[in-house]
Amino acid sequence: MNQPLHPFKSVSYGGHAPGVKLLVTAAVHGNEVCGTHALRRLIDEIDRGEVVVTRGQLTLVPVTNPLAFHKGTRNGDRNLNRALGPASVAREFEDHVANWLCPLMAAHEVLLDLHSFNAQGKPFAMLGPRNNRGGVEPYRHASDEEAWVQVLGVGRVVDGWLSTYVRGVARRREEAGERAAGMDLNPNYGVGTTEYMRSLGGRALTLECGQHQDPHAPEVAYQAVRRTLAHFGLTDDEPPTRVGDIETLTLHEVVDKRHPEDRFAREWQSFDALKGGDLIGVRQDGEEVRAPAAGRIMFPNAAAAARQEWFYLAQPSARLAGG
User: Fold this and answer.
1) Closest Cα partner for 107 from 35, 191, 14, 22?
2) Domain residues of the chain, as ranges?
3) CATH architecture for residues 11-245
């Protein structure tokens, strides 16, 4: 590829007292700009003295993927939020991003990654795994993330991303055969910013602030950052209150497209309710794809390519009950 045309930029503030090192990123996908607006607003307020970082370190990255942001598209050369990690040889623009971003994450303890989504819907957060010593995503800071996500300002939380993704890749590899190759067969393909941060021993949340063009999404992002600053004590603001009646869901299955002509039975939106046996879609060969049980459909993608995620299934969870 050509040399990168767009520089990387972060803005960092240090308090006078020790504290948490917090990193907030936006525009990991270039067409998801609500977080960019929120962080630029916050930078202006800090520079004017209206918001004061009194403890720890705050680093803000309003545009994480400047090529994709410049193009106004989800990706520059590829999806930065898949198989994220340092690249020994930088072949695509996102490799350059990763080689800059991964050390930046390693220098911090907490990451909040701001996103938006294509379909209509209300904001939600993606939570990491429960504490475990397994091989997929071992973790020991679940209670910290659970306390944090409950004051983020949103009423819906989803977990189970990476474990579900890994199971989907295993099934994809089995169907593709031993000689098949491609990034979509990489067990680490589901690793994005938050998963990489957790692998370093940090705490991390993804906040999906609303639909890409929702005029309220930048405010959702801004308030979440302000709440995060107060929660971790970087500012002297009052600790944020917990959101009541948080709906918690766990992803449990990902279903791939097998053929470009696989089609949905209707125009699904994320979080649409399903009953057991509901017709979700029809394969190119006429096979019906039905819901195995009651739950919700997540991330339906009618434009998915063959051997890519078509939709996810989620079930209610009591993980935050009584939290």
Assistant:
1) 22
2) 11-245, 252-316
3) 3-Layer(aba) Sandwich (3.40)
Q: Which residue has the tokens 């940090």?
A: 202
Per-residue 3-state assignment (H helix, E strand, C coil) for 50-100: CCCCCEEEEEEECCCCHHHHHHCCCCCCCCCCCCCCCCCCCCCHHHHHHHH
Residue 184 is given by DSSP the state: G
How far apart, in whole angstroms, are the C-alpha atoms of residue 274 and residue 293?
A: 8
Owner of token pair 């930048």: 218
Describe the crossing of helices 217-231 and 34-47 by its angle, rounded to 10 degrees.
50
Distance CA(93)–CA(322), nearest Å, equals 44
- Coil/strand/helix, residue 121: coil
pLDDT 10s digit of each residue in the chain, 323 long? Answer: 455 568 999 999 999 999 999 999 999 999 999 999 999 999 999 999 999 999 999 999 999 999 999 999 999 999 999 999 999 999 999 999 999 999 999 999 999 999 999 888 899 999 999 999 998 999 999 999 999 999 999 999 999 999 998 898 888 877 776 555 565 677 788 899 999 999 999 999 999 999 999 999 999 999 999 999 999 999 999 999 999 999 999 999 999 999 999 999 999 999 999 999 999 999 999 999 999 999 999 999 998 888 888 999 999 999 998 55
pTM confidence score = 0.94
- The CA distance from 297 to 280, in Å, is 9
Token pair of 180, please? 């098949």
Tell me, what DSSP letter sits at residue 189?
Answer: T
Cα(174)–Cα(256) distance, integer angstroms = 13
Topology of domain 252-316 in CATH is OB fold (Dihydrolipoamide Acetyltransferase, E2P) (2.40.50)
Is residue 263 classed as helix, strand or coil in its secondary structure?
Answer: strand
